[in-house]
Amino acid sequence: MVIGQKKIFLGARIVWGLALLLLLVVLSGGPGVHLGLWTPLEGFMLSLKGGFIGGMLLVVLCFIVIIMVVINKKTSGIGKATLALLIGLLLAAPVGYLRMSGGGGVPPIHDITTDMINPPVFITLLGERGDDANSLLYEGAELAAQQKTAYPEVVPLMVSEKSQEAFSRALKVAGTMGWKIVGVDARAMRFEATAYSL
Question: How much is the pTM?
Fold first, then answer.
């Protein structure tokens, strides 16, 4: 018989701390890009791999801790360990789902265009990205076929305005949306812009 409050098992404290640390690591991927700590691809991989690999390891550790607490009836900590286990599952689940569903039903492509015959070419932004960034060149017929199947709604927007008016409006809309606009060429009616998500 145990009298008084049970002591929390050290392992339960450790997995709870690891869960909070892992959550912080996974959530830091995007903000770290905005702070210039790493590239967008590095931030994405940090969140992706941290969530899946870290989450799965955390789940295994939590199961071990829960079993040890159950065996050692003089200690407590099942609540903390169970909550840490749920955090691990929550972090690993999105990547696990994508792996099991074959990418969530869409191909693993990073480039989409409204003009698959003569896709626009980046000029100004070509030298702005790191060595490990995805290519800015549209990869031709195979990519176009994947895009048509996965994103059939992405088509050119036809407007009744004159070309110069449509260009000016598009440039204004991009600025209103907070895009970082570079490479404006009014004569060729083209501009390049970068938009960052959270």
Answer: 0.62
